[in-house]
Write a structure and sequence with these properties.
This protein has 459 residues and is of the alpha+beta class. The chain folds into three domains: 2-157, 2-Layer Sandwich (Beta-Lactamase); 217-297, Helix Hairpins (Orthogonal Bundle), CATH 1.10.287.130; 307-458, Heat Shock Protein 90, CATH 3.30.565. The protein has helices at residues 2-41, 54-63, 103-111, 152-200, 217-263, 268-297, 311-322, 344-360, 419-429, 452-458; strands spanning 71-79, 82-88, 116-119, 126-134, 141-149, 307-310, 329-332, 339-342, 367-375, 378-385, 433-438, 444-451. The strands form three sheets. The protein has a five-stranded antiparallel beta sheet, sandwiched between helices. Strands 7-9-10-12-11 form a five-stranded mixed beta sheet. It is rod-shaped and about 160 Å long. It starts with a helix and ends with a helix.
């Protein structure tokens, strides 16, 4: 704003000074033109004939002219051995040193070969123009008509207007600054609230929210920030619960190991049984740690490395590996003859985990079906068992870390409740999801749903 206002004032001053120059040049040209015309066509009122003497010409012309307040009309007549004699209009001029009182300036102008110019003096600048007059019967100039203009007052008026413009611009700048400060402060108040809220957030207190007023961009920013805080609060709550559950799951085998070691006697059979129990608990703890590391890696972009895979071959390989998990009625229930961009190791890991989960929820001789199918752009890999199924209230819980269903049939196993969390992480890593629905005739069916378009985009 300061640069704009200063530029306007400076440009206005330049235009005004240019107008002053044009007006002065026009005035000088007008006066010299009138004298030149009078010299060519004028007559001496006493004789009725053309003028023959420069003195008489200058006197008659000056008697009939009226000069502007800052203008001088002077007739200069050459004299031998001295400066030019002058013929003037007797009047007062509002300048420090008029031309008719400055012999040096008169001589300079009279002797100058130019017809116009600018004479700069300590007492003030003079803009002048002249018309040389030759004596009758001679080509040598014997006199000159001089128009002198003193521009000090015109320039002073322009400078005064420039100062007024600067003063007005300063007041306008102050008003604009004050109004802009107030308006900007009001507009940015929600932003300051966002900053204050962010500064006051701690890991222990994520409950602070920003009040949302209106429907403008600032309100949208506040809503976005509040939504981010909601996600952070849920994430921190999940993290705390995860740490608590992990500590609990790891504390149990540690307690068992310590208790057996403290009670171990000298009997060789007792020592062998204690070593076996301790080894089992350490293996379970090792599996929990490996699962935790795998879930932590699921947050990284390189968790899955897709490559072109024949889904039929992958399904058959999973079926062969799953048959070794338990004595069940294993069945390969169809395969999808498609190629897709998948991470075969991660998909195999998820499917084997689902098969292991089915084994734990069934008894010997019950049916477990493994297969794959293609529906449009989607590919589905599934594991269906004929066990007791999953209660409706447990269907979302079982996919969370360290969460198990309320009813578990068959072998309880040594799992920590991380298996289905790993399956979901692998499905989401492929841009898909894992679904659960009841098996016809009883049991549970877990389905990995993968969209081929999303898989190709990831590859």
């Amino acid at each position: 704003m300061t640069v704009a206002l200063a530029s306007v004032a400076t440009t206005t001053r330049s235009f005004l000074l240019r107008d002053v120059d044009h007006r002065i040049n026009g005035l000088l040209a007008q006066e010299t033109g009138e004298f030149a015309n009078f010299e060519r066509r004028g007559f001496d009122p006493e004789t009725g004939r053309s003028f023959t003497e420069p003195d008489r010409l200058l006197r008659v012309f000056l008697e009939r002219q009226y000069a502007d307040p800052d203008e001088e009309l002077v007739g200069l007549v050459a004299r031998r051995g001295a400066g030019p004699r002058q013929i003037i209009q007797p009047r007062e001029l509002p300048v420090a040193l008029p031309l008719h009182e400055d012999p040096g300036a008169r001589r300079t102008i009279f002797e100058s070969p130019a017809s116009s110019g600018i004479l700069r003096r300590p007492e003030g600048e003079i803009r002048w123009a002249k018309v040389s007059v030759a004596r009758h019967g001679s080509e040598e100039p014997g006199a000159a008509f001089v128009v002198a203009f003193h521009p000090e007052r015109e320039t002073a008026r322009v400078n005064e207007m420039f100062r007024v413009l600067l003063a007005i611009s300063g007041v306008a700048l102050l008003l604009t600054t004050g109004i802009g400060w107030a308006v900007a402060g009001r507009i940015l108040q929600p932003v300051r609230l966002v900053r204050t809220a962010a500064a006051q957030l701690t890991e222990q207190d994520l409950t602070r929210r920003i009040p949302v007023r209106g429907r403008d961009d600032i309100a949208a920013l506040a809503e976005t920030f509040n939504a981010m805080l909601d996600r952070l609060e849920r994430a921190f709550a999940t993290q705390r619960r995860f740490v608590d559950d992990a500590g609990h799951e790891l504390r149990t085998p540690i307690t068992i190991v310590r208790g057996h070691l403290e009670l171990m006697g000298d009997d060789p059979a007792e020592r062998e049984e204690t070593v076996r129990l301790v080894t089992d608990e350490l293996d379970r703890m090792s599996r929990i740690v490996e699962d935790l590391l795998l879930l932590a890696k699921a947050e990284r972009p390189d968790f899955v490395t897709p490559e072109p895979v024949q889904v039929a071959e992958l399904t058959a390989d999973v079926f062969v590996k799953a048959r070794t998990l338990g004595e069940r009625d294993w069945r390969l229930d169809g395969v999808a003859d498609r190629e897709a961009g998948l991470d075969p190791q991660r998909i195999t890991q998820a499917m084997v985990q689902l098969a292991q989960n089915a084994v734990q929820h069934t008894t010997a001789g019950q049916t477990i079906r493994i297969g794959s199918r293609a529906e449009g752009s989607r590919i589905e890999l599934f594991v269906a068992d004929s066990g007791s199924g999953v209660r409706p209230e447990d269907r979302e819980v079982i996919f969370e870390r360290f969460r198990r269903g309320t009813v578990r049939r068959g072998s309880r196993g040594s799992g920590a409740g991380l298996g289905l969390s790993i399956v979901r992480a692998i499905a989401e890593g492929h841009g898909g999801r894992v679904r659960l629905h009841d098996t016809e005739g009883g049991g549970a069916t877990f389905v990995l749903t993968l969209d081929r378009s999303q898989e190709e985009a990831r590859t």
